[in-house]
Design brief:
This is ABC transporter substrate-binding protein. By secondary structure, the chain is an alpha/beta fold. Helices cover about 40% and strands about 15% of the residues. The protein has three domains: about 35 residues; about 130 residues, Nitrogenase molybdenum iron protein domain (Rossmann fold, 3-Layer(aba) Sandwich), CATH 3.40.50.1980; about 130 residues, Rossmann fold (3-Layer(aba) Sandwich). The longest helix is centred in the middle third of the chain and has 22 residues.
């Protein structure tokens, strides 16, 4: 195209000026060679500089959601740095937190676990993913048939990392529960970079941060709180370093008991414990309801004479967290739902 433009522009003078003809011909040849060169080449930089992979922190929005990108970035995972082509497809995801973030980013997921209990794990603009096992056990036959370009795991499926890595590049993006805000923020950022959605990821994070600011404004000086999980007729509490620690560390509700023992399933408690601890606010997770089990509801379990003596129960300051807080903690929609619920509850009490 460039050669043609040059020929048309100078045709009336080329035959009268042989020297100019030679110069123009050389110029056209140079442009032609440049036009045939790879768009990735850059003669102003050394060859080794061109092969360096940007990290997720420096990736631009260069990928689209329709094809695997030729750009590669380095992602900081729970198991170290992994280099991966941007916008991998087919994509398999075995974690509900990651599925929430990808749905909010409008990223297509080709394979996902079956039997999920949340309705915000899939972008409405994208095709439904195929079933490739459960959140506990992958279907290796289905994975081999799909030949994914990347597998994203976290939390429950992380223990299957080695088996999955033998099929496709696998990223363990498990969230650090002891620092859930910073960890989930980094994961959302990295997903945005990996799929060329950095601007959208920043917008989503701003939504979360704005809600945090609004929630902190109404929780200030409003009393102590305690996170209680009800599982059938059993109860446990969670401390500041747990997956529910954001209530104390992010929205700044002082914990009613700062001696709670860490544990994946919390510290078992009794009704007497709640009565003696006497929190101003109760934040309740109904595990049975979250996983679809038929059981006595958390509200019925807590309707007890000893619990009734607490300030939280007497002032109707009992906040029921979303099922997402158990199944997809740190996910975009979990943040939005639970922050909104907490903000509204505290605002109504003022």
């Amino acid at each position: 195209m460039s050669t043609t433009v040059l020929s048309n522009r100078f045709s009336s003078t080329f035959f009268k000026r042989p020297l100019w003809t030679a110069i123009a011909t050389a110029l056209a040849a140079t442009i032609s060679v440049a036009g045939c060169s790879s768009p990735e080449s850059n003669d102003s930089e050394p060859a080794d500089a061109q092969t360096e992979n940007p990290t997720a922190d420096h990736a631009e929005n260069v990928a689209n959601n329709d094809a695997v990108s030729t750009h590669t970035i380095t992602v900081d995972t729970a198991r170290g740095d992994i280099d991966l082509a941007m916008n991998p497809s087919p994509l398999v995801v075995y974690d509900m937190t990651l599925l929430q973030d990808l749905a909010a980013l409008d990223v297509a997921v080709d394979g996902a676990p079956s039997g999920l209990h949340l309705d915000n794990l899939h972008s409405e603009t994208q095709p439904e993913p195929k079933e490739v096992g459960t959140v506990f056990e992958p279907d290796l036959e289905a994975l081999n048939a799909m030949q994914p370009q990347a597998i994203l795991v976290g939390s429950r499926m992380a223990e299957k990392y080695d088996a999955l890595s033998s099929i496709a590049p696998t990223l363990d993006m498990t969230i650090d529960t002891a620092n859930i805000y910073e960890s989930s923020k980094q994961r959302l950022h990295d997903l945005g970079a990996l799929f060329g959605k950095s601007a959208q990821a920043a917008k989503l994070q701003n939504n979360i941060d704005s809600l945090i600011t609004e929630t902190k404004a109404v929780t200030k000086d409003s009393g102590t709180g305690l996170v209680v999980m009800v599982n059938g007729n059993k109860m446990s509490v969670y401390g500041a370093d747990s997956r529910y620690g954001f209530i104390h560390n992010v929205v700044n509700v002082p914990i009613a008991d700062d001696h709670i023992k860490d544990g994946r399933h919390g510290q078992p408690i009794s009704f007497e414990y709640l009565q003696k601890t006497n929190p101003d606010w109760l934040f309740v997770v109904d595990r049975s309801a979250a996983i679809g089990e038929d059981s006595v509801g958390a509200k019925a379990v807590l309707d007890n004479p000893l619990v009734a003596q607490t300030t939280a129960w007497q002032k109707d300051q009992v906040v029921y967290l979303s099922p997402d807080s158990y199944l997809a903690f740190g996910g975009y929609y979990q943040w939005i739902q639970d922050l909104t619920t907490i903000k509204n509850a505290f605002a109504s009490a003022q």
